[in-house]
């Protein structure tokens, strides 16, 4: 990429690395909390607490969109290091599709089995389920088999990567980057995405939610794909990043106000007193405002306060994807194992948190140490070890 608006390819924004790490850590906490709220999940604690919904709503609007944005941002640097678009999509296919297949075959089945056992009275053991029912390509008690569950994100990311690769082959990238810099180098970086998201959530798909089904998810694709492409453009745009740094404070104010609006609507209504239809549009508009303004505020804060490197950053950045692959299976299996103990809610949460972090770390460290497992958990092949130089003889 040429032009004064583009940083050198070697320039690294550590703030975006820290933001990516934090976003995935938040996702793990969110999925632990899913055990304790009335919303549907693969396994539920007996300690349901409606108040837990309130802090979760603070992240509902933007957490997934942010993950796709930072993934698009990282893709720009991966593409710059690749010999060309073909090599880039081939490398990304290995890094995404192999873990996705491994996850569907090995990681996800315990989640589905626990759901069938705890919710539908399924009586067979996990090995029997895996050998007899899981690969039936049918439904069992309304549960689709096999499933990718939380790994839908990986499938979407590969599809968006393929779209991006095709776009880079068809579009003159320097001209496209200059257009991006001009459009998003000021207030439009805050306003234009909000207008788009208001259309999605406030008009086109009123109170619609993502289905996480690749061919039947208009709300998801209209939200996540633009965020992914925006992150790709942002990675080489000084004007857009500078505008975000200037606007993070007003964006944070708007995001908080939008969250409080959503919170008030949620607190005024309950399953016994559902939200009236006339409030759907204000809710959708508030959702859109919080969705983008929170992301702008977080990127601005990360760029302002997260520019310093740390010895743990590289390790955490590498560990993020293996943690993501395994975390939900650990949560679901651990919660199922805790059910007979009937522990207090706070004890269940503590055990789940410790078990999830420890299990994710063990999965990452073991997978990193075993060469043939590395590509299955999304890691690059281990670099070849350097031969030891002969030591001079001591006379």
TrEMBL record:
Domain Acyltransferase as annotated: residue spans: 14-364
TM spans (from-to): 21-39, 51-75, 96-114, 150-171, 183-206, 218-235, 247-265, 285-302, 323-343, 349-370
Domain of life: Bacteria
Keywords assigned by UniProt, alphabetized: Acyltransferase, Membrane, Transferase, Transmembrane, Transmembrane helix
Keyword Transferase: yes
GO molecular function: acyltransferase activity, transferring groups other than amino-acyl groups
Protein name per UniProt: Acyltransferase family protein
